[in-house]
Amino acid sequence: MFSCVAAAAGFLGGWALILAWHAQAGGMPGLPANGLAYAALAVYAMALAGRCAAKWHPALRRVSALIACAILAGADVVISGLPGEAAQKTFFAALLGIALVVLAARHAPAGLRQRWLGDNGA
Questions:
Q1: 3-state DSSP call for residue 98?
Q2: Which end is more exposed in the chain, N or C (fewer Cβ atoms within 10 Å of the end residue's Cβ)?
Q3: Helices marked H in the chain
């Protein structure tokens, strides 16, 4: 049985792992690695939205996952305390990873979408 509350807790736990990784890296993560980390978080967010908000329109699920992950990426930059340009680069690397996953969810083959996003896909 799938529990949306447990899945949401896992989603926030994944974000906490990214925060811990940034703290260990001294606040400035490698940009490609940061984009990949947030892409993985977006994959989880899309699956979470697909299963827990199955009655929502697929476009609304994609946008909600994009916004939720972008808010968490922004909070990550604020918590890390990065200065100006480094903060922008870190945030936009994360946003690029998130956006690529959301686009992949839109254009993936039907079988993959059904397996990844639940019964009716995206």
A1: helix
A2: N
A3: 4-24, 31-52, 58-80, 84-107, 110-117
Q: How many CB atoms lie within 10 A of CB 40?
A: 15
Instruction: Say if CB 46 and CB 122 are below 8 A apart.
Output: yes
Give residues with Cβ within 8 angstroms of 21, minimum separation 6.
29, 37
pTM confidence score: 0.86
pLDDT digits (tens, 9 = 90+) for 36-65: 999 999 999 998 888 888 888 888 989 999
How far, in Å, CA of 72 to CA of 84, rounded? 18
Place of tokens 């972008």: 70
Cα dihedral across residues 10, 37, 39, 16: positive or negative? positive
Residues 92-119: tens digit of each pLDDT: 999 999 999 999 988 888 888 888 877 6
Please identify which residue in the block is written with the tokens 């979408």: 113
